[in-house]
Design a protein that fits this description.
The protein is α/β, with parallel strands linked by helices. It has helices spanning 38-42, 106-112, 123-133, 146-150, 162-166, 208-215, 251-260, 273-281, 368-376; strands at residues 3-8, 13-18, 25-32, 50-54, 58-59, 87-89, 92-93, 117-119, 136-142, 170-174, 180-184, 198-203, 220-225, 237-240, 268-271, 286-302, 308-319, 328-334, 340-345, 350-353. The protein has two domains: 3-148, 3-Layer(bba) Sandwich (Glucose Oxidase, domain 1); 162-376, Rossmann fold. An eleven-stranded mixed β-sheet has the order 11-10-13-12-14-15-20-19-18-16-17, with helices on both faces. A seven-stranded mixed β-barrel has the order 1-2-8-6-4-3-9. It has a two-stranded parallel sheet with strand order 5-7. Helix 7 (251-260) links the parallel strand 14 (237-240) and strand 15 (268-271). The protein is globular. The chain starts with a strand and ends with a helix. The structure holds glutamine. Glutamine (GLN) is lined by residues 46, 242-245, 272-273, 314-317. It comes from Bacteroides finegoldii.
Length: 377
């Protein structure tokens, strides 16, 4: 097992061993405190550009499910078509695995997808450093390659438009019957008539379980590239997806949402990046959290009620509640740090959640938000 060093932007170093693909990588080092869910998290496009540290110490013991694809083109058990995180950092990788649905080990999957995995890292100490300092860039350097990497600059996470890298490049039309069709984004696309409600899904890096949650509610989903102007199409609702990176790099999406808002009756629902882009379209500002929310047990309160939900989360930016205009109000608030967890318009059917109601992985307690959206269509 090759020795590796994780070097943070502030100079801190952590030594470990490689159990994945051997390739030096750099990215924003973040931590996730969930106890399970590495197949879903690794394939969540919102982790693009990030080195994912898992604080739960024992990782890999339930292996990896098969990468089977459904007739509609969606992966059965994964959240996208490949691993998007730059690397995974764990304390104690389990070489043995056992699970009814496992077909390979985490290490073999990482090697196949050319993604580094490192074990033997004191993830408790690493997380303490990130909590004190805030998230920072880091690189994984392999033994005997230190010199080559030494003078390489850390890229700046917030300057890169990761959404553009992970969004679909063509329009994909999904039907609840379990099929799909593709059209080039520059063709004159029209939505064929059917009796079902149609949702345009702005793909900033959508997780497949969001598409599954919509299809399960018997709506057609028209998935479009993040910067596609869908405003000439005929549809019943607009959905804005999760996605990686800084929402300030996604201006084209914000402009299109603003145009869509000319129709005050059009239902709009956003998740995570979708909450941030809807907020920006409404005039609010976004800031970067010190170390983000990445876990399965983030408590949020529905504003105006005493109802609290345990949610699955993965975000590093947040909407500044103080910058919401008079037409908008917070819909959910984080019980740990008081930050915004969703917004809603006071008159129009427009709302969003900073957390993940589709879970995958994590608790499904807030999946009812999809029901609320579909009822509005
Ligand atoms: N999962 C997401 O959509 C994350 C949104 C954004 N990239 C953030 O980190 O805040």
């Amino acid at each position: 097992m090759r020795n590796v060093t994780l070097i943070l932007d502030d100079g801190s170093r952590f030594s470990g061993k490689s159990f994945g693909y051997e390739k030096p990588v750099a990215g924003e080092v973040v931590f996730n405190t969930a106890m399970t869910g590495y197949p879903e998290s690794l394939t969540d496009p919102s982790y693009a550009g990030q080195l994912m540290t898992l604080t739960y110490p024992l990782v890999g013991n339930y292996g990896v499910p098969p990468f089977t694809i459904e007739p509609n083109g969606l992966a059965t058990f994964m959240e996208s078509e490949k691993i998007h995180a730059e690397a995974i950092i764990v304390s104690d990788y389990s070489y043995e695995y056992s699970h009814w649905n496992a077909v390979e080990s985490l290490g073999d999957w990482l090697k196949r997808e050319k993604v580094p995995g490192i074990t033997g890292i004191d993830t408790r100490e690493l997380t303490k450093v990130l909590r004190e300092h805030g998230v920072m860039m880091g690189k994984i350097v392999f033994e005997n390659e230190e010199l080559r990497m030494k003078n390489e600059e850390f890229p700046s996470y917030s300057d890169i438009n990761y959404v553009d890298q992970v969004s679909c490049k063509e329009i994909i039309h999904y039907f609840p019957s379990g099929t799909s069709s593709h059209s080039a984004a520059n063709s004159s696309f029209f939505i064929p008539h059917s009796s079902l409600k149609k949702v345009v899904l702005v793909d900033c890096g959508v997780k497949t379980n969001i598409i599954r949650c919509l299809l399960k509610r018997n709506v057609e989903v028209i998935r479009v590239p993040w910067d596609y102007d869908y405003n000439g199409l005929e549809f019943d609702g607009l959905f804005i997806s999760n996605g990686p990176g800084d929402p300030d790099t996604c201006d084209a999406a914000v402009q299109n949402i603003r145009k869509a808002m000319a129709n005050e009756k059009l239902p709009i629902f956003g998740i995570c990046m979708g909450n941030q882009l809807l907020s920006k379209a409404g005039g609010a500002k976004i800031y970067k959290l010190k170390y983000g929310h990445r876990s399965h047990n983030q408590p949020v309160r529905m504003v105006g009620t005493e109802r609290c939900f345990i949610t699955s989360q993965n975000h590093g930016y947040a909407v500044d509640n103080n910058t919401l205009s008079a037409d908008w109000e917070p819909l959910f608030i984080n019980m740990n740090d008081g930050s915004n967890e969703g917004i809603k318009h006071k008159r129009n059917p427009w709302f969003s959640a900073q957390f993940h109601p589709e879970a995958a992985s994590g608790p499904t307690d807030t999946e009812f938000l999809f029901d609320e959206f579909v009822k509005l269509l």
